[in-house]
């Protein structure tokens, strides 16, 4: 499996976020993916795929990703238009869950129209409840993070009702990890024995442990996952190498 996140593509090729050409950085990440992962069963794009919800951004991304994996899944983020995403790729790329080779993969929509922070609506918690009712080893993907990471400005934007999710996972050994985007950085935490993993953006990176908005100098990246036949999994973050990306390090935020 491969996870990419937070592409922030603009309406037109070459549009930038904080000085970084997001089409250029995404292409560098996808070329790295193609070099490192010649065969992909599932590719998950976990939100903020467009910077301002432009249909042209989704059309470019869909055309570039098409054929890269046997199954492609999109999740909306706070910068996205879920309706336009569905208009471009249909329901096949936006399922609530799938089963692949004995693993259950669950995809929860945490986006709230008009808000930066996340929340799980009743229908999304119902998807999780249905997943908890069987014994497949399970990974959960969502856009927003669930627990504070130590970035005060960013932690205000996490899933507001994360406790409702955690309540459903108590003593559920089939859940192996919950994997998010949004945070533009690599992170690893635990809830009981369930991994809480954050994945870098394909464009700008946020500095860890920052009280106020700050950018990191790490390159864009993505996450690889290998799922075993006995419910075990391995994962790592890989970043673009040998390329330098321009970014506005004096920026105090963005919209």
Q: What is the succession of H and E elements?
A: EEEHEHEHEEHEHHEEEEE
Could you tell me the mean pLDDT?
96
Q: Describe the largest sheet.
A: 6 strands, mixed
Helix content: 10-25%
Largest sheet, order of strands side by side? 6-7-8-9-11-10
Tell me the β content: 15-25%
Account of the 3D structure:
The protein has 255 residues and is an alpha/beta fold. 22% of the residues lie in helices and 24% in strands. The protein contains six helices and 13 strands. The chain has helices at residues 22-36, 55-65, 82-89, 122-132, 152-155, 162-169, and strands at residues 2-4, 16-17, 20-21, 42-46, 71-75, 97-100, 103-107, 138-141, 175-180, 187-191, 194-198, 221-227, 233-239. The strands form three sheets. The chain has a six-stranded mixed beta sheet, covered by helices on one side. Strand 12 (221-227) and strand 13 (233-239) form a beta hairpin. The longest helix has 15 residues, at 22-36. It is globular. The model has no long low-confidence stretch (mean pLDDT 96).
Helices, strands, pairings?
Layout: E1 2-4, E2 16-17, E3 20-21, H1 22-36, E4 42-46, H2 55-65, E5 71-75, H3 82-89, E6 97-100, E7 103-107, H4 122-132, E8 138-141, H5 152-155, H6 162-169, E9 175-180, E10 187-191, E11 194-198, E12 221-227, E13 233-239
Parallel strand pairs: 1-4, 4-5, 7-8, 8-9, 9-11
Antiparallel strand pairs: 1-12, 2-3, 6-7, 10-11, 12-13
Helix pairs in contact: 2-3, 4-6
């Amino acid at each position: 499996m491969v996870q990419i996140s937070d592409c922030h593509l603009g309406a037109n090729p070459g549009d930038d976020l904080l000085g970084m050409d997001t089409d250029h950085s995404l292409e560098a990440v996808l070329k790295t993916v193609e070099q490192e992962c010649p065969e992909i069963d599932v590719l998950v794009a976990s939100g903020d795929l467009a910077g301002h919800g432009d249909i042209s951004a989704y059309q470019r991304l869909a055309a570039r990703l098409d054929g890269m994996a046997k199954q492609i899944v999109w999740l909306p983020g706070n910068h996205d238009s879920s309706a336009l995403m569905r208009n471009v790729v249909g329901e096949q790329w936006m399922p609530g869950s799938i089963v692949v080779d004995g693993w259950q993969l669950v995809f929860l929509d945490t986006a709230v129209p008009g808000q930066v922070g996340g929340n799980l609506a009743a229908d999304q918690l119902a998807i999780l409840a249905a997943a908890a009712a069987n014994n497949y080893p399970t990974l959960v993907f969502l856009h927003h993070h669930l627990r504070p990471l130590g970035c005060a400005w960013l932690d205000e934007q996490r899933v507001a009702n994360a406790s409702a999710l955690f309540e459903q996972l108590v003593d559920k050994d089939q859940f192996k990890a919950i994997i998010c985007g949004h945070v533009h950085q690599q992170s690893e935490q635990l809830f009981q024995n369930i991994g809480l993993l954050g994945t870098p953006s394909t464009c700008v990176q946020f500095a860890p442990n920052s009280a106020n908005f700050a950018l990191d100098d790490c390159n864009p990246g993505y996450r690889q996952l290998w799922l075993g036949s006995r419910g075990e999994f391995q994962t790592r973050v890989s970043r673009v190498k040998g390329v330098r990306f321009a970014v506005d390090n004096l920026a105090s935020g963005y919209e």
